[in-house]
Please model this.
Amino acid sequence: SMKNEQLITKEVQTFKSIIEQGPFSSRQHYLRLSLPETYRALIRAGLRSDYSMGYADMPGWRAGTHLPFPWYDLEKEKSTHLQIYPFAFMDVTLKNYQHLSASDALQKMMFYRNQVDSLGGPLYSLWHNSSFSEAHGWSGYGEIYERYLRGI
Model:
C-alpha cells in the first residue's frame, strides 16, 4: 500500500468496520516507504503514528535518531501531526539477514539498549509474533526477548 493511497484508505476503513474504532498507528510491510507519498497518505487516512522507520537488513537508526519525532513534509515546508517512532533492530534482521544465533542476537540487542540507556529515551524494536515459535525456526529467540526486556 506504500504507493496506493486508496488501498491505505480501504485498509483503514476495513479495520474500523471490524473493531469499530480507528487504527491510530501504522507499520508498512517490509518497511517499504515512498516518501513523502506514504506519510501523506497515512495522514489523510487519519493515522497518528508510524513504526516503519528502520532498516530491514541491518540494525541501526534509519532516521539517525532513537527519539520519536513529528514528520516534517519538506516539499510542502509543513509540520505534521504524524509521529514517527524509529526502531533500532528487527527480529528478522538479526536472524535472517544478519544470520545471528539467538545468543549473538542478544549481544547485538544489548549493544543498542546500552547505547540508548547512556543517552536516555526509549528504545524501539520490531518483533513478529511468529518469532516466539520454535516451530517456525526461531529457536531461542523467545528466551532472548525475555532476557532483553529484563536487561540481562
About this structure: DSSP finds five helices and six strands in the chain.
